[in-house]
Amino acid sequence: MQEKYNLKYAVAAVRGQLKRVGNDLISKELLNKPLCQLSDTEQKEIIELGEKMGFKLHYFKNSDRQLPRVNKVLGFLKSIYFESLLDVGSGRGVFLLPFLDEFPYIQVCSIDILDKRIALLSDLSNGGIEQLSVQKANLCCQPYADNSFDVVTLLEVLEHIPQVEKAIRSAVNMARKYVIVTVPSKEDDNPEHIHLLTKDKLTEYFNACGVKKLSFDGVPGHLFMIAKMEK
Fold first, then answer.
1. How far is the C-alpha of 210 from the C-alpha of 39, rounded, in Å?
2. What total number of domains does the chain contain?
3. Does 2 map to a domain?
4. What is the pTM of this model?
5. 41, 76 contact by CB (below 8 A)
6. Is residue 18 packed enough to be buried (19+ CB in 10 Å), middle (13-18) or exposed (0-12)?
7. Distance (Å, whole) CA 169 – CA 167
8. How many other CB atoms are found less than 10 A from the CB of residue 44?
9. Do residues 54 and 127 both lie within one domain?
């Protein structure tokens, strides 16, 4: 069991889905007990029920592999002090889940525009991942007030957004300290990628928002950028 799943997230996902769809096959105690207080037997019972009901738990399978771009972002975050983070376009949690593991005491908010992604992440939050809050929101509409988060992450996001300049301005407005960006570094065959955002283009867009302190690096297939706010 422990080798197959990251138990914390798999259990939270099952409990969140059970709360959402309604089910009387599990006690209220097991649905609401803090994750850290669940016994191995109780965790096994919850996951077996989730598998029986056909819940999608493959997102939470354990793996020794972590994407280089995710490691790059986590490495930078370990070098700074921050208390809150907004992750834009969290998707299936490729960055978000490793972040939650590395920073268990940091409050993180996740936004996405796709209902299926919001449902997945909301299940985690409702199932016991208390540091995580989730909202369906469009970055271009700036869903939070100025200076709401120490860090805003835009990881594999900007290349999908038609109004990319507006999206960047919203992120800059909401960030107190840093905006972190990763984008593909070359053309690919993904039809959802509508921009190739080069170093020059990102510099132009962030400079237009008044952000001058930019640093760039590369990881395989991706451009990594840190924008430091001056407010």
1. 52
2. 2
3. no
4. 0.92
5. no
6. buried
7. 5
8. 15
9. no
Residue position matching structure tokens 């929101």:
137
Amino acid (1-letter code) at residue 76: F
| Pair 19, 116 in one domain | no
Tell me if 191 is assigned to some domain. Answer: yes
Q: Look up residue 42 and give its two tokens.
A: 């109780």
**Tens place of pLDDT for every residue, the chain, 231 residues?**
445 888 899 999 999 999 988 777 888 899 999 999 999 999 999 999 998 988 888 888 877 667 899 999 999 999 999 999 999 999 889 999 999 999 999 999 999 999 999 999 999 999 999 999 999 999 999 999 999 999 999 999 999 899 999 999 999 999 999 999 999 988 887 777 888 899 999 999 999 999 999 999 999 999 999 999 986
- 35 is written with which tokens? 């994750």
Range of the domain at 55: 7-60
